[in-house]
Amino acid sequence: MPAVTETREAVEKLGQSTYKWGFETEIEMDMAPKGLNEDIIRLISTRKEEPEWMLEWRLAAFATWQAMREPTWAKVSYPPIDYQDLHYYAAPRRKPGPKSLEEVDPELLRTYEKLGIPLHEQALLAGVELPEGETARPPVAVDAVFDSVSVATTFRKTLEEAGVIFCPISEAVKDHPELVRKYLGSVVPAGDNFFAALNSAVFTDGSFVYVPKGVRCPMELSTYFRINARNTGQFERTLIVVEEGASVSYLEGCTAPMRDENQLHAAVVELVAMDDASIKYSTVQNWYPGDEEGRGGIYNFVTKRGACRGARSKISWTQVETGSAITWKYPSCILQGEGSVGEFYSVAVTNNCQQADTGTKMIHIGRNTRSTIIAKTISAGRSDSTYRGLVRVQPKASGARNFTQCDSLLIGDQCGAHTVPYIESRNMAARIEHEATTSKISEDQLFYCRQRGLSEEDAVGLIVNGFCRDVLKELPMEFAVEAQKLLQISLEGSVG
Amino acid sequence: MNAISTTMPGPLALFADRLNGVAGAERHAALGALARTGLPSRRTEAWKYTALRALGTASFAAPAAGYDTARAQALLDHVLATHESLATLARVVLVNGTHAPELSHVPDTLQVGFFNQSPTFGVQAAPDRDPLVALNTALAEDGVMLSVAAGVKAGQVAVISLGLGGEQAMSYHPRHAISLGAGASLSVLSVHAGEGAYFHNPVTDIHVGESAELRHVTLQLEGVEAVSLGTVYADIAGHGVYDSFALGLGGALARHEVHARLAAPHALVHVNGAQRLGGRQVGDMTSVITHAASDCVSRQTVRNVLDGHARGVFQGKVLVERVAQKTDGYQMNQALLLSPDAEIDAKPELEIYADDVKCSHGATVGALDDDQLFYLRSRGVPEIQARQILIDAFLDEALALVTDETAQDICRAIMTERFGQKGGQA
């Protein structure tokens, strides 16, 4: 099967050999000593000039975390993590004075340029390809997180005019304490799970978005995360609050330098949507997956959850997961508001020794709530990929509706693909449908395409692209391009 | 030694009196496994949806020697009266887990042995494989051992387990085995019935030889106060067929757990089932189908109809090992909720390590379809009958999967007896 072999090669490339974002930047770091204790948390809090309530919140989370055990139910295995052997705080050296691009460490800017992060408006616009017939698109605002401190934010002025707050969460703690206090931990409580508790105790930065009533965010918001500096865990905290009738689309993309040691990443993302509000949260995750033997690579333990608090609110998660050695991630929706809608679209690609255990939870609480889950899994090499999802319909969720589709594609005979859906219904007037398939690229499909003159390579590319299409089409255009590159399964000449 | 009982975790203590008396290497191994793990709680993934609270708090005694003959006869007559063909079948009857020869009727064509005559635990159920199997291993009193020699078509036999609950909490742990030689065939109808409160914990060790065919229908008609937690292990050789169906209607808490292993190429397994529950019943259908060889086929369709405060659980795992190329697996679980307080928890699971496979599963949950109801109402069918027709139709599709015609007739007769005439009064 040459075509399959080629596909396998393409998938392999995607993993490590051509990991083009594998470099390290040498910048002086301001780093806390290794280890995790109350003093470190106080240090983080002091460095961030946080108010007292924030410190107390962190310390309470830390106390909770100490009493918790690391979860073992996911289908991933990794050597034990020594939480005392990590740095919990690292900040690029700060220069006095107001932050402007000119004052940002030039080395850092070069890093962004290498990453292709469009900090400059021109670079940003140049980076966006427009499809035919479309004349212009609103610009994208970037809040770049370099390790732990957000060092530059663009487009703030435009956003401010619209009344949208988009800033590092550390600034939000200082500038908008009433909002942060009200919503932080309201969707993912500090003691929600082991990794969320850890994050709550030591989170260093992340983004805060607040869209006031009736405002349609004038641009797509984007944060590029990048892990840098050896042995620093990244503990981002993102909080997005969208008021009545407002809407926002948020893009999150990740790359990390190549290295040997495992790195821990435990982020928490909280979304709150009020009446008629809508949030679209898109992720392309491409952290270093480790080498062919599984050495190195990022451990990615993420808690993402959105609360549809208001009637007719909508939260949509889209993710393309290609990186990380370990992925442990279940973006979820709590559908409280009557008629609220939750969506989850996911493509997960694993290769070599990668392990991914990912899926979603849809908790139907309000009446006439609806959810859609489309999960596509591609496994290659010796990797294991698991879809793990929960659809729960509470007794009051009359008229609730769920549709779930999970498809797995296996490439090679040394990988595994698993599907573990949990379906719980306590309301007779709810309808749940779930379907899952596992297959390889069938001879029939290949034959059909070959018969019409496609090369085997193109045929495989076409089939794989078609396999993921339902998800890729949900991505914002800027991301769809990147995602297709990431999937990189020889599409030349096959799809227009 | 009482030292064991003080360390027994959770509900295991309810069996402490009996467990302390066990003898023999296998039983001790089982006891050791139990002492380590205890009985499962909802923290155990395989028991996430089913709690053992229904076991109560009273210590379980062993079944008394001898039984109330009149009561057993009456119960048996009631079961046999379900369908005329049931009474004519060869049958082995156990009362409280022990063979009752006077109620049984076994033809010579069938080799029937009994566990208490030659206790062998089989090879599949290692004591530490599952706590309820370990409990059975430690306490097994008796059981039916059916074996069919190579090439023999052994016809059909009913194994009827009657539970007679009394005032004292009582448990019985029968250990059954079914073994078919190459090319043999057999149809087994396992009937669980009873009255009063008791705990029935059967384990069945099944071996289907090469090109052999075993049809196995389980009718779970346990008493409404009973707890019934049964485990079936089936190992299927090349070109062998294990065609099983379980109908769950009784018990306060019932779990039917099947572990089927397709051990050699071209084996086929069906793990079908249906349950219809009401009141506060909890019914759990759990299965693990392991494809351990290439070119095997597995099929599973389970349908649940839940009324009152009933709770249905379906956990179905299909495991495809690396060697099991060309696997064809299909699984479908559907639930119909008839009452606002009914609940279904389903976990269909695929674990796949081979790439050249076709595996799919599906699950649906919902109420009766309004459009279908309207269709029937618009043709003058009263609502109550219309509902009954739709429920019957829903379950009938599952019953149609029973390939043994006699067994299928019996299943239908039981549904009719319990839930009214087809299309008639609800």
UniProtKB/TrEMBL annotation, chain A:
<dbReference type="InterPro" id="IPR045595">
    <property type="entry name" value="SufBD_N"/>
</dbReference>
<dbReference type="InterPro" id="IPR010231">
    <property type="entry name" value="SUF_FeS_clus_asmbl_SufB"/>
</dbReference>
<dbReference type="InterPro" id="IPR000825">
    <property type="entry name" value="SUF_FeS_clus_asmbl_SufBD_core"/>
</dbReference>
<dbReference type="GO" id="GO:0016226">
    <property type="term" value="P:iron-sulfur cluster assembly"/>
</dbReference>
<dbReference type="Pfam" id="PF19295">
    <property type="entry name" value="SufBD_N"/>
</dbReference>
<dbReference type="InterPro" id="IPR037284">
    <property type="entry name" value="SUF_FeS_clus_asmbl_SufBD_sf"/>
</dbReference>
<comment type="similarity">
    <text>Belongs to the iron-sulfur cluster assembly SufBD family.</text>
</comment>
<feature type="domain" description="SUF system FeS cluster assembly SufBD core">
    <location>
        <begin position="225"/>
        <end position="467"/>
    </location>
</feature>
<dbReference type="Pfam" id="PF01458">
    <property type="entry name" value="SUFBD_core"/>
</dbReference>
<feature type="domain" description="SUF system FeS cluster assembly SufBD N-terminal">
    <location>
        <begin position="160"/>
        <end position="217"/>
    </location>
</feature>
<protein>
    <submittedName>
        <fullName>Fe-S cluster assembly protein SufB</fullName>
    </submittedName>
</protein>
<dbReference type="InterPro" id="IPR055346">
    <property type="entry name" value="Fe-S_cluster_assembly_SufBD"/>
</dbReference>
